[in-house]
Amino acid sequence: MGQHRDRPLVGEPVAMDLLNTRWVGGGVEHDLLDSMEGLRQWLAETGLDARFEAGPAALDRLLRVRGTLGSLIADPGEAVARAELNDVLVRGCVRRRLLEGAEGGPGTAGFDVEFDDPAWGPAWTAADGYLDLLRAPERIRRCANPACVLVFFDTSKNGTRRWCSMAGCGNRAKAARHQARGRAGRTA
After folding, report:
1. How far apart are CA 38 and CA 31, in angstroms?
2. Which residues contact 54 (CB under 8 A, 6 or more apart)?
3. Residue 126 and residue 166: Cα distance in Å, rounded?
4. What is the mean pLDDT of residues 133-142?
5. What confidence tens digit (pLDDT) does each residue in 50-78 have?
6. pLDDT at residue 4, as a whole number
7. Least packed by Cβ within 10 Å: which of 122, 127, 146, 162?
8. CA 147 – CA 129 distance, rounded (Å)
9. With contact defined as beta carbons under 8 Å apart, do 143 and 22 qualify?
10. pLDDT of 184 strictly over 70
11. How far apart, in whole angstroms, are the C-alpha atoms of residue 135 and residue 140?
């Protein structure tokens, strides 16, 4: 087994998490999906490893969807990216069903997803997750740090989150403002 790679901002919705398999750390660009081991790590981190197997076809399809999602985040009206996402979404079919409740009565709704090829599973799941996020598209954000490539879904109460994390980019921005105020005070 290969080496586990720590990456920032794990735990976002699966579509955002897929985009965040690329990150910059220490001035170096990283790509978790540059290997099958990275794919296995991502599937485990997102909890998709229980449903889907890591394989070359799944990796190729995930990379395709990652690029498509990146294009849609940059320009939601991008026609080619919209068509590519729709092409992925037709690879799966949601079958809804009513689950049995207590004493045989009606319970809760459930669903199964069927794929024309199981290797589409992880990519389809990310594409479908993006559609869920479009219920509040204004909350899909890029980190305000220009050097950061991470994206997130803003779940803050007032919808004003700016940074991928306050511990990382947020603190660096605060420190930079503090230093700038200090320099301005010395030159005045």
Report:
1. 8
2. 36, 39, 40, 43
3. 26
4. 95
5. 999 999 999 999 999 999 999 999 999 99
6. 84
7. 146
8. 26
9. no
10. no
11. 10
Cα 49 from Cα 39, distance rounded (Å)? 10
Mean model confidence pLDDT for the chain = 89
User: What was the pLDDT predicted at 167?
Assistant: 72
The pLDDT > 70 percentage for the chain reads: 86
Q: Which tokens is 174 given?
A: 């605060």
CB 176 within 8 A of CB 49: no
Q: Which amino acid is at 36?
A: M
- For tokens 């790679």, the residue is 5
Per-domain boundaries in the chain: 14-187
Which pLDDT value is given to residue 32?
97
Any idea which fold 14-187 has? Answer: Jann2411-like fold (1.10.3300)
SS (H, E, C) the chain: CCCCCCCCCCCCCHHHHHHCCEEEECCEEEEHHHCHHHHHHHHHHHCHHHCCCCCHHHHHHHHHHHHHHHHHHHCCCCHHHHHHHHHHHCCEEEEEEEEECHHHCEEEEEEEEEECCHHHHHHHHHHHHHHHHCCCHHHEEECCCCCCCCEEECCCCCCCCCCCCHHHHHHHHHHHHHHHHHHHHHHC
